[in-house]
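Below is how a single chain appears once it has passed through the pipeline. First comes the sequence as given, then the structure the pipeline wrote out for it. We keep one example in the README because the format questions we get most often are answered faster by looking than by reading.
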Amino acid sequence: MKKLLPIGFDDFKEIRQKDCYYVDKTLFIKELIDKRGKVNLFTRPRRFGKTLNLSMLRYFFEKTEREEENKDLFQGLAICKEGEKYTSLMGKYPVIFLSLKSAKQPTFEMAYHCLKETIAKEYKRYLFIMQDVQLELDKDRYMRIVMEKGLSTDYATALQFLSDCLYQYYHQKVVILIDEYDVPLENAYFGGFYKEMVDFIRSLFESALKTNISLEFGVITGCLRITKESIFTGLNNLKINSILQDGYQEYFGFLENEVEELMQFYEVEFALPTAKEWYNGYLFGTKKVYNPWSILNYVESLRENKNALPRPYWSNTSSNRVVKTLIEQAALNTKQEIEELIAGQMIEKPVYETVTYEDIYKSEDNLWNFLLFTGYLKKVEERVYGEISYINLALPNLEVKYIYRTTILEWFRENIREKNLSDFYHFMLGGEVEVFQKELSKLLMQSISYMDNTEAFYHGFLLGVLGNLKDYLVKSNREAGNGGLDIVVRSLDVSITPVIIELKVSETYQGLEKKCEEALNQIEQKRYDSWLPEEGYTEVLHYGIAFYKKQCKIKGKVKRLIE
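Resulting structure:
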């Protein structure tokens, strides 16, 4: 029996006790000790191992009633081979571990309630210290928080108060671990209660991390580095490590050798080239990194079926709202840049590491930055002009490319649903070629294309446009005559002339005319209309449509089917 893959597991102890496959990231502990940051902020995209790493830190440093309780979890792992300098710190500190992801709620009241519950749960973990009658603690305040009946001021300084209590009990300073610190802020911004949430998080953090004499050190994780809101005001001991910095590069996400070992272990190494195309490509500092969530899911699917196709696993775990907003708000230049990215090219943008949720929609540069730091783009190279850094950006892999493509299609369908295309349909069905061509060209100009499979794109594009055509049947790739026609549009009323469309793509603008003729000839030669008389139709309208980038050319003719 192979080890269980830890899909959906983010608790280090559970992974180790259930003997799940674990990609050893314990040297993260060594680097953290060596660099001795008082408060350390790590920003990485979602599902790249932040929660699991904080859980690992908790079980390594946490002082327990039974001294040996967590030591077995680290047996055989890299940190245990680094010597007593590091292993002597195992189980030495009381630890406060807080995840703020539960605050993803529709109102401030609900989000605040969930944060109170999370804080109360951590207080309950240490409820036994209240039995020590010698401690000079405000036990009424402690119990108010446990019962979730505290005052707003109780919760604003709850982490500092708990660390003071633990310091008195253990006579040892406290490690504070805060996971997904920016989830409440992102959620509050989109929910319309941003200021209230910022005020609360600022008070919670300042008291715990800025002037807390009971603090040994703290580690915070999130997707964005948010400082403008003054959440970390005056916190001059904050060390920030984002995807752009060196250091700690290999501890979030999987390195290539780790993916190779994982796939060899499960005997699916034959799929490594596919895994690389779909899930590799992120650049953290100078290290190339795979998406760990997607790799684990892909390996699991290959274990069940060696012919399993790669899927966009990450797109189901992360909101694509900002990608959609970028597309919806895109001016002509931005549409062209999105097309370049999908075509595998790079775009250059200034970098602002302190993008806040309030700033995201104030400029397209801010949107690009948000997409970089949340994993929808990758850094290729960086250069500095004067005081501003510029980064060449690209799509990391096929999984992220899929997200852009599907988001574009969704936007396009919504956009088409809102348009009045009655004139377009009238001109097409009536054989008015010149104005039909003009209207189709307008729609092409307004779209965002991806040209990795050009004819397929134009085919899908035209089907999307025809999707709103009521009282008509629209069929694609129908077997007819001596082949498969591209598109047929017909009414059940046989007195209304049906339409057969054949599409071609030209490599040059000058070649459009010739491609239109080829398309019309193909309809005739392969007798795509041979089945229509049996249905009762007496004539048909043939269209040959040729595309070059966002230009099109249409030729059409009416053909009598029954003389």
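DSSP finds 22 helices and 15 strands in the chain.

See the next section for the split statistics.
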